[in-house]
User: Fold this.
Amino acid sequence: MNSRSSQTMPVLIWRSVVQALVVAVLAGILLSFVYGLVHHYQDKHRHIQQLAALLTTSASTVDGANVVAEQVNILLENEPTIQSIVFYSTTQPINEVSPLLDDWKNALFADTVSFNYPVVSKYIGNADSKRSGSHQRLETALLEHKSESAEKTASITDATENSTLIGYINITMDVNILRMHWFRSILWLWLITVTLTVLFALYIFRKLNWPIRDIEALVAVCNTVTKNPELEQLPVIPQRFNFQEMVQIKQALVVLFNRLQDTKQGYEALAAFEQQLHNKDVSLDVQLHNFQSMISHELKTSLNAIVGGLQLLDDDTLSNEQKDAVEIISNGSDKLVLSLDQIIQLNQIQKGQIRLHTNEFNPLQLIADLLAIFEPIANQKGLRLVSNIHHIDYSLYGDSGKIEQVLSLLLSNAIKFTPAGEVTITSQLTHFSKSNRWQISVKDTGIGIDSEHIDDIFNPFFQVDSSQTRQYEGSGVGLPIVKQMTQLMGASIEVESMLGVGTQFTLTIAMPNQQQSRQQRLLAGLNIICFYHQEIGSLASELESLGATVICHQKPQRVIDEMSNSKIEMVMFAEDVFPDKAELLAKRIREYERTESDKRALLIYWYPQHRVRYMDSFEYGLKAAGIDYCHSAAYKGKALGDLLKRWLVWT
Assistant:
């Protein structure tokens, strides 16, 4: 993981350029210093060699002592870098090598450097006495000069005779003085160089400032876009210099901003379309509710009047033909009433208005009651109604009324679509440690169902034979009711059929055992008001299955009246209640509690899954109105009970 602190590109560029310039200047100064000093040292060395050649030439003559003394005097006075000149006589040659590496070392680190130059005489043998006197005069001259100069001395050592090599002149150079004079000589050159370097650096900085300004302008635009999410138009990006990279970044930013705007417009259009769909769903729900009310109050009321009128007819006063006509009308009205009842019930299931009412029942007794009802109908068609029970007498815990209704619809269908043969109902019961599984199958030897239609038979109003000449009557809502009721109970249903052979429906229901059913009644003794707009949903059924007493109301005033008449621990707002309506009722409840009651009820607003992303827009207002918790309606069973218990403890 990179732990470096973030930095901007302009700062990085400035730092890099400054560091590069500093390194370049230091390297240039160091190299020029070393190279210049060594070169100056080598020039001085060559100059001393030339002077030494002049001295050795003068010293090699017989009468050169005075000349050498005068030359030495001049050199010591005019060459401050020469520290001393010494003559010593020797007959042994000295091998002296000055490689280039020694020049570098001496120029940089030495304090003084000595050079030896041989003095060779042409006057040997016949001129010994003269040479000896000449040596003495050279020694005397150098000693006299030494006494005159305290800092720069010259000494003469006795030389050996009878040899062409008279001796060596040793010249010592003061390197410190050489460096000081060199520094003084190049000081102005360095000042000029540094001045030019600074000017050149300023020029480079000025050129670098061009892209840096463009980068800063781009960063400013990015900050504007970041801090203003509702920005609809990208600000102008000033670019003083058309650098290719900056132009490409600018174009990419423009393209991304345009894509973001297109996405935002698409999202807004999608949100508007979703709102339209929601409004349309609400409108359809209203129309469906009105349709259901029309069926319940208008059609069914009229049919009940017809059925009641037919029942009031006196059979004794009717002729046989009239009796047949009345019977036909009565049978038709009964079928129409049954169809309307099934349509209403299917609509109620889809809207969540049907709730489970669990109770303890005997499965053997339930099957026996069904056989007693349908056996005469099967005998009338010449069918045999057979039951196969594979378990002993046992008590189960569930909604026996809805189970009986599902089995009644399956048996009715089986008898209706079986021209000959038998209808068999089979019951199997499996016990587990914490639950029971009851499996009931209804099998017939009827006409069967084509495999391509099996997935469609649970759709409302679906008919395998939809022609006007179809043989079997029916509204097509029986099996959809079976499917919806099965899902409501948390059960499953499977279909196996073969055309011309028969069909088998298998219903599998998972039920708690008696011990578990007692443990699951977590909310026993609680009185809960469920306030809904149009649909109660499955919330009330879940609460009742947990042992709570649920009172459902659709009018806000009825909720207030109920709280004044009963002890209410909790008020729940169903999923279809809009936040503004829940907020108004919550304020009324809290106002009532402050003025009329000394108890405080727990208020909970359940919102559907599709409103999760809008929660921030209504949660604050609801809690400010007095609602304790806002939660997604995703909890069921024991999880719901545990959640409510925890909220009650916290409150």
Notes: Residues 244-312 form the longest helix (69 residues). The two ends are 45 Å apart (CA to CA).
